């Protein structure tokens, strides 16, 4: 089997997810930049499980949520080879292609890691820690605050606040909001991973964005983010990031796992 599947196409102080007296679960970014780590993956790809495991292990490796915000976006373009990824969405495939189109050559592949919006192939080595440290050393260019107000049957109610520090970035900047789920697993019955049990964390389940800043430097929104039936609230979280849509550069990122009692 080929080493990687290729398809060519033409906070920050996570603040411990502190819970206030009114049971609001909240987090706010700090003075430095947190790195956004996007893994584009598929259960139909036999070279993806090592990358899935690597993403799941980032915090066990010693990284903190004020350093990295990991998200797994499952793509659907490998479904045709025998196994339909239950976590895949066409919008994630579209996002990957759109970001790839900003670079030359335009190559979409799995597993692909984007670090701060840029293709990063050296994720398995020490270069990753070096690049994260470099990103973390930069002053924040945006502020993000997240709060989880409630988890209801079918929805997680979240509040988002994002503010730019430089008015010159308003035109191209946008906010993205996502819910993610941990401790997911599949018993794969067909395709390249047939017979394997695949486990995943930080899997994006609901995606909102881009949300433009419009005429101001601040965005404040309340959202009811859809949940599938039967999810365990302990495995959920919300993430947000601010990105330049013309360069793909990520200005700031934040993640907020659900707090006990939310």
In a nutshell, what does this entry contain?
This protein has three helices and 16 strands. By secondary structure, the chain is mostly beta strands.
What does this 3D model show about the protein?
- It is globular, with a radius of gyration of 18 Å.
- The strands form five sheets. A four-stranded antiparallel β-sheet has the order 2-8-9-14, with no helix packed on it. A four-stranded mixed β-sheet has the order 4-3-6-7, with helices on both faces. It has a four-stranded antiparallel β-sheet with strand order 13-10-15-16, with no helix packed on it.
- 40% of the residues are buried.
- It has three helices and 16 strands.
- The protein has helices spanning 49-56, 90-100, 127-136, and strands at residues 5-8, 25-28, 35-41, 68-74, 107-110, 112-115, 118-119, 142-152, 155-164, 173-181, 184-187, 197-200, 203-212, 218-226, 236-244, 250-257.
- A hairpin with a 2-residue loop joins strand 6 and strand 7.
Provide keyphrases for this structure:
262 residues, mainly beta, 4-stranded antiparallel beta sheet, 4-stranded mixed beta sheet, 16 strands, globular, disordered N terminus
């Amino acid at each position: 089997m080929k080493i990687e599947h290729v398809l060519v196409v033409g906070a920050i102080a996570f603040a411990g997810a502190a819970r206030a007296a009114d049971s609001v679960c909240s987090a706010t970014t700090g003075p430095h930049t947190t790195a956004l780590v996007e893994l584009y993956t598929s259960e139909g790809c036999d070279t993806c499980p090592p990358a899935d495991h690597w993403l799941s292990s980032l915090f066990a490796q010693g990284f903190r949520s004020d350093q990295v915000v990991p998200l797994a976006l499952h793509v659907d373009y490998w479904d045709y080879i025998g196994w339909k990824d239950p976590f895949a969405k066409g919008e994630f495939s579209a996002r990957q292609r759109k970001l790839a189109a900003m670079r030359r050559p335009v190559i979409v592949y799995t597993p692909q890691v984007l670090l701060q919006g840029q293709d990063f192939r050296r994720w398995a080595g020490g270069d990753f820690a070096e690049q994260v440290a470099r990103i973390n050393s930069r002053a924040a260019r945006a502020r993000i605050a997240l709060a989880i107000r409630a988890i209801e049957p079918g929805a997680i109610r979240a509040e988002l606040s994002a503010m730019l520090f430089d008015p010159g970035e308003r035109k191209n900047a946008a906010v993205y909001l996502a819910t993610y789920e941990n401790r997911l697993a599949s018993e794969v019955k067909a395709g390249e991973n047939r017979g394997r049990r695949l486990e995943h964390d930080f899997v994006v389940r609901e995606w909102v964005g881009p949300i433009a800043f419009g005429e101001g430097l601040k965005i404040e929104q309340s959202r009811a983010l859809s949940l599938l039936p039967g999810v365990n609230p302990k495995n959920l979280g919300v993430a947000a990031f601010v990105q330049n849509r013309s360069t793909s550069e990520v200005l700031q990122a934040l993640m907020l796992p659900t707090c006990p009692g939310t």
